Every structure is written in structure tokens, then in C-alpha cells.
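Notebook entry, structure prediction.
Reason for the run: the old model in the group folder had no record of what sequence produced it. Starting over properly, with the input documented here first.
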Amino acid sequence: MINKSKPLLSTTLSLFILATSIFIYTSSIIFPTTAYAVSHKNGGNKNGGNGGNAGKGSNGNGGNGGNGGKGGGNGGHGGSGDGTGHGGNGGKGTGSNGNGGNGGHGGSKGGNGGKGGNGSGSGNGGNGGDAGKGGKGGEGGKGGKGGHDGHKGKDGYF
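New structure, fully documented this time:
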């Protein structure tokens, strides 16, 4: 009597090895291509993060906004100062049309407004932050070629 299970097992094993080989071969082509595409997605086309605000009662300065990513992005906005603290500066725009971030507001007791970030390419410059009482408004950022300059922030009055 012939044992039929051995040829069936042999065929199944052969098909499994063939399918696995095809899967490994296909994955070795697709995965590196996908990984490369993901890691080079417009060179990191991201906007810069916003600067943090100063803590209440700290008389601290606001944080500066981050710059746009390598592939292009808008600069982050500067954080607001507290008390005598100054507003953070806006981040720079990057790429062909990145806008500069706005400067943060100066603290209410005489803090200066932050400077607006510069635009890139055809991007606009960020607006300067308004100042607290007695402080100076921040300068507007410079627009890129074809972009508009940002407005100066308001000076603080007594």
C-alpha cells in the first residue's frame, strides 16, 4: 500500500517555501523604497512649533517660535511674555513660500513685543508682537521675494 501523505506533505512544503521566497523578495524591493519615500517626504515639510508663553507672575520672556522644516514650512509664532518679560520672536519661514511666524506679545508691565520671523521665497514676513505698557512693539519680519513685510507691533502706552 502506497502512503499518499508524503507526496502531499512534500508538495505543500515546496509551495510554502516558494511563497515565502516570493514574499521576502517582494518585500526587499518595496520596503526600502517606501522607507526612503517616507523619510524624504519633501525633506520634512513641516511648520515650526510655537514658542511657549511665559509663566504667570514670572516676568519671563516668551519662547521663540521654531523655524520651518528643510522642505519648506511656516515659522512658529513667538510666545507671550509676562510682566516685564518680552515676547518671543517668530520663527523663519522656509522653502518656496514659507511665512514667518508672528512675534509674541510683550508682558503688560513694559515688555517689548517679539520680532516677526522672515518669510522665505514668496512667503510673507511675520508681524511684530504688540508691547506691554511702555514697551516697544516688535519689528515686522521681512517678506521673501514677492512676499510682503510684516507689520510693526504696537508700542505700549503709559
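Summary: The chain has a mean pLDDT of 85.
The old model has been moved to the deprecated folder.
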